[in-house]
Amino acid sequence: MNLNEEVELLKRVPIFSKIEPAKLKLLAFTSERVNYAEGQELCHQGDPGDAMYVILGGVADVLIDSEKGQIRVAEMKKNDFLGEIAILCDVPRTATIKAREPLSTLKISKDTFYRLVDEVPQMAIEVMRELAHRVVDTNKKLQEATAKQAA
Length: 151
Prior knowledge:
The protein is of the alpha+beta class. The protein has helices at 3-11, 21-30, 84-89, 110-119, 121-150, and strands spanning 32-36, 41-43, 51-57, 59-66, 69-77, 81-82, 96-99, 103-109. A hairpin with a 2-residue loop joins strand 4 (59-66) and strand 5 (69-77). The protein is globular and about 55 Å long. 25% of the residues are buried.
């Protein structure tokens, strides 16, 4: 895939949709394209976070460690992003991300991410919007699990 094709893919990612093409080209150029085989981990819960990822193709599972083993709590697919919590909060990875099928990603370093947020404030709003959606979804799942357990 060439640089222009990567820019076209990035335009479809909600957090990057309002970024001008020249900055998207710079993002694509300065980021690392990383492919994962089925079953391969992108990151492991508890590891330090130094980058975020945008899924360009494929599907990954979000897994949380529990006393009974890993629990799948979400799936990530094309145009989703992950890893932003670790770099925003300077905390270890909050989940393990594992490729469910061959996966293509764009790995964006912490420095590049912060530079983009500084230059494109709308991107910060889109990240906050996605994080808010994830909290709402998590609360819904927690309510359902609590109701199921009470029954």
